[in-house]
């Protein structure tokens, strides 16, 4: 997806990026093969890639897309805090939790860490949208396929 062909989405992205004070350059992609609408972000250093899966962009209203962008960029914000310590912790906790010989306590630690990460990102969406219900309506619309 290029800024020339998807100017409105890149404009929303830029507004969210500025509100969350994120410095990384972000490129958007559309993955058509997926039927289930979803989004994920991958980043390293000063570059990030945000991937939309399936018909997600057709299902969301502009305010809902803003909330989704803020949530995904929240991952960058969290993982950039304290010189990337939360990102490092996430990778270690996930690796231990994914080890088949790990005890239950490590599985629960991994589960809690993922949940708190998502809560942090949801709070980023809440801050960016000013408390609108667009985050909740985005989730509902994506789950039911509108």
Structure characterization notes:
The protein has 146 residues and is an alpha+beta fold. It is 60% helix and 14% strand. It is built from six helices and three strands, in the order αβββααααα. It has a three-stranded mixed sheet with strand order 1-3-2, covered by helices on one side. A hairpin with a 2-residue loop joins β2 and β3. α1 crosses α3, α3 crosses α6 and α4 packs antiparallel against α5. The longest helix is centred in the C-terminal third of the chain and has 26 residues.
* Helix and strand composition category: alpha+beta
Series of H and E elements = HEEEHHHHH
Overall mean confidence score, pLDDT: 87
Oligomer: single chain
Shape assignment: globular
In spatial order, strands of the major sheet run 1-3-2
Q: Strand-residue fraction? A: 5-15%
Major beta sheet summary: 3 strands, mixed
| Count of alpha/pi helices | 6
Low-confidence region ranges: none
**What distance separates the N and C termini?**
23 Å
- C-alpha Rg, in Å? 16 Å
Secondary structure: number of strands: 3
As a percent range, the share of helical residues equals 55-70%
């Amino acid at each position: 997806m290029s800024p020339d062909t998807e100017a409105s989405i890149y404009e929303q992205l830029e507004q969210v990026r500025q509100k969350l004070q994120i410095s990384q350059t972000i490129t958007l992609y559309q993955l058509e093969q997926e039927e289930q609408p979803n989004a994920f972000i991958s980043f390293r250093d000063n570059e990030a890639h945000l991937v939309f899966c399936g018909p997600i962009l057709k299902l969301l209203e502009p305010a809902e897309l803003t909330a989704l962008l803020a949530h995904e960029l929240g991952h960058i914000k969290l993982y950039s805090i304290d010189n990337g310590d939360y990102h490092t912790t996430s990778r270690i906790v996930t690796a231990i939790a994914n080890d088949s010989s790990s005890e239950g306590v490590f599985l629960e630690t991994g589960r809690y860490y993922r949940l708190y990460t998502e809560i942090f990102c949801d709070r980023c969406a809440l801050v960016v949208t000013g408390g609108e219900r667009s985050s909740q309506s985005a989730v509902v619309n994506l789950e039911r396929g509108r």
